[in-house]
Each structure stands twice: as structure tokens, then as C-alpha cells.
Amino acid sequence: EAKKHPPVLEIPEAVKTISAPGWLIYTGIPTPTSHGLGLELNAPLLIASNLKQQQEEMVELVLQPKDASDWVNYRGEGGLNIVLAYNGSSPNFIGKVLRVRKIRKKQSEGPSASAVALSEHERLVWKDVGHLLSAPTKDVANHAYAQFVLCPLLGSHHVDAGVRVLVTKEFLELIDNGVLLERPSWRVDNGGINTLLDSAILMSDHSMFPPHVCLLFSHPMTIKAVPEEEVCISVEIKPKCGFLPTSRFIREENAAKRRISRFRLHQILKFHQKKISQISEYDPLDMFSGSKGRVVKSVKDLFLTPQNNFRVFLNGRLVFGSLGGEVDDTNTQIAEAFEDTLKVFFKADDDGGMHIPEFLQLVAGAVSESGILDRLLQVQKLDAIDIEGAIHAYYDVMSQPCAVCKELQPLATDGFHSIPFDQSLKIVRDFLISLTAKDLSLMISFRPTPKGNSQSPLNGGTIYLESLNRSFDYKASFIDLDMKPLEKMPYYYKLDQEIVSCYTRMMKTVNHPEKSESLHQDESSAIEDKSHS
């Protein structure tokens, strides 16, 4: 009967200690524990207050210098943020990570570095998203973008926008110095934490399952986190763009874009620029195909050539892949070390058996069964006319003469700039959203299904591995959801042309070997794909 009508447990005012101040409601099925009259809550607690109220309450938390030692746990970083995991005992932060904004060394530190959240033209593009318009800084704007733009599109179960927490300058300075030696040297050279900001984003640690929470019927009633005994392994994947454009705006000399995925084309440019030592066999078209066989192939290809598109964590600790830079290929030594890690996760005896194929099958099974990429693909396809079409809408929005039209034949530009202004705004807005969807990461976490637990995670499911005769719970989430800046659209166009031009020149060399020497002597403009890095 309880399974048909799950109970709702309202937790009194005295025990508002988990996640955020406010009423907590648990909608799962409680099970007796050994903690007296306690109930162990094996699913995430749901906060029964609106999101805005929750954020207002969480922002009242202030991280002080005394808290810094609990956050000096480097998890990784991208171009815009450093991610730190919590290793303290406060119920507010157990199972959380802190995303802190970075600043480049060439960029002037100070309020001006982030004071203007949106430019004048960006305010036109995002005019229908009130929370974005009211954001005081870029950091707050990125948070609102994830919450109010991407969450409805990608699904609330799979998007964690996080909540803002206040931080002091001294706290930021301490953690900046504390993780210095753990960061890749080239990242350190580029910049560090912006110590003049007053807030950071607190998010769930998607490389782990939420800790068990125990509700104790004592006086007063209390909640406490139960130490996690199970092993959790997580994989972070950058799926990249999963479709081929068909836009009529793609010029004939760029027709390769209609046949070959953007990722594969970009690999050729990176190889020519010596940014990678070998070209990956991974093709996003396999990952997004819906075919189980092709999905398995795509996961294997990512494992063999991970670069910065495939990483694995064991209980939140990186065990495969790189925190910075790129790992071009998986050699025998790396594979053997990872095999030892998998024995811990699968709790396998040292029988000499190989568990990497089982792990890759587990990952591919979660990708296929979750259907999470279907929704992502629809968001990516908001880019309906490709950058070769969207760039013209960009110049209309900016009220500038179109720099691209100057380079094209007059007949080739006919009708590009005759559409209504609101339509140009929509084209640019949709393109920027799709760009985030093409560059985000997918985090999938696994754990052995707990005995006696028939409930799957809200944002996942259960995979059965016949070879092991065991079931594994999984949960899937999207991360790295930063808004792409409007002013970089000319850069995106230039990079696109560089990518397809490199492929075209390579094909001419293949067909005419005598021209190969000139290809290697022809230096590209070495465009840095900062959105990828």
C-alpha cells in the first residue's frame, strides 16, 4: 500500500538543516534503519518552497575564511570556473561542490570585470527572460541562464542550476592559494579565482550519489547524513554536436559540413595545428544515433582517445582522463591502471578478467536507456540555419554593416538582411542556446543497486549487466551550462570557416600529393577554440 501511496514526511522547524532553510518534504518510501526509530531516506529530499525563495535563503549563507579548509579539494576547471568539492561535515554542504568564477591575468581585476552582466545588444536578445535582465553580474546572469533558459529545455531532473552563496574575499584568496599546486600549470598561467566577487554557485556533486539521510524520531527531531558505504563511479562525456546541418545558407564550397560531423572536421584542424597528436575515431553522430551498437562504438572510441571529452571519477576522485590539457590516447599502462580501479567498483576478485568492456557497456546502456540525448539533440537543433546564416542575423541585431556580405558575391547575399528584426533576435538567441547544448558535459554516475531498493533515481534508472548478474543504478545530469557571449559570434563564424577550409585543403592534398608540401608550409591562423577549452 505504501508503494501505491508514498508517504509525505513534513519535517518540523527545529530540523531545518539539510540543503537550505525551509520545509523539507520526502516523497519516497522510508525504510527502517538501525538508528532506533529512525527512517533512512534513500532518495533526494525535495524542498517544498519555490526556487526563488530557496535561493534567497541560501544566499544568506556566507563562506568565511574559517570554512576555506573544507573546500580546498580541487575537482577541475574549465575556461570560466573552478570547481571545488566539499570535505567537511556541515549538513548544508555534504554532497555539494562550489563553482567559483575565474579571471584571466590579462583581464583587469575588479568590479568592472563582471559588473555589466549583459551588453546593450545582449539585453535585446534576452529581453523575454526577465531574470537575466535583472542580473547584476555575469556570474548571476549565468546562473539565471541555466535556471530559466536551459532547465525548461533540457528538463529539471537533468539540470542543476545550483544556488548562490555569499563568499568573503579572504575565503576566495585562501582557496585560490590552496588549490594552486593541484591545477595544471597552463591553467595557472592563464589566471585564477576572481577574489573580488561576492558570491559563488553551490551545486550537487554529480560525480556521486546523494548521501543517505537519516530522520531520527528523537526529541527534538533531527536529521543527519549517514556515511556512504557504497562505491560510486562516474563518467563525464562531452557529446558535442549530434546532427548534420542542412541549412540553405551553407555555401557550396563548405558542403563537407553536410556530410561530416563538426567534431570530426575540427579534429583535422586541431591535428594540423599540432594541438592533438592523433585524430579521434569518436563521432557524435554515433552517440546520438539511437542505435545501441553505434552508441557502444562511440563510448569505446571516446575511451580509446579521450582527449578532454571523456573522464572517469571513483567516489569523486579522477581515475581516468585529465584535469587539464588532453589525453590523446589510452595506452596499455593507462588501461591497466584503470582496470585495477574497476575491480574496486565491481568488487571483483583478482581473477585476471577484463572489466573495461563491462564498464563501457554500462555507460552505453545508460546513454541508450535514459533517452537523455534525445532532448539534448532537440536543443542543439535550435540552430536551424547554421552559423553561415546566423552570422547575418547577428549583424542586423548589432545594427552594423555585415562583414560577411562584403566577402561574398552580391547574388549570394540576396535576402539575408530582409527579415524582421524580431526574427533576427530569435535566430541569434536560438543559435547561442544551441551552442551551449553543443558544448556542455553529460555526467552519468553508477552504483550497485542497494539490496531491497526497488526505486530508481529520479534522473536515471537501473541497468542490468548479464555478464555479472548484477544491477546498477545510474543518474544522469548536464553540467557546464554557461551562456555564450553574443560578441563572440564573428569568432564562431571565423572558426567555422577555418575548420572547413582546413578539411578542403587536406582533401586537395590527398587528391594531388604533389601539393602536400605547400599544405604543411601554409600556416593556419591558429584560431584558439576557447569555447572547447
UniProtKB/TrEMBL annotation:
A GO molecular-function descriptor: ATP binding
Keyword terms of this UniProt record: ATP-binding, Kinase, Nucleotide-binding, Transferase
Domain of life: Eukaryota
Single GO cellular component term: nucleus
GO annotation, biological process: inositol phosphate biosynthetic process
EC number: 2.7.1.158
Class in the EC hierarchy, top level: transferase
UniProt-listed InterPro entries: Ins_P5_2-kin, IP5_2-K_N_lobe
Region Disordered, residue ranges: 513-533
Catalyses which reaction(s): 1D-myo-inositol 1,3,4,5,6-pentakisphosphate + ATP = 1D-myo-inositol hexakisphosphate + ADP + H(+)
Function: Phosphorylates Ins(1,3,4,5,6)P5 at position 2 to form Ins(1,2,3,4,5,6)P6 (InsP6 or phytate).
Domain comment, as recorded: The EXKPK motif is conserved in inositol-pentakisphosphate 2-kinases of both family 1 and 2.
Protein name (database record): Inositol-pentakisphosphate 2-kinase
Species this chain originates from: Ambrosia artemisiifolia (Common ragweed)
Record lineage: Eukaryota, Viridiplantae, Streptophyta, Embryophyta, Tracheophyta
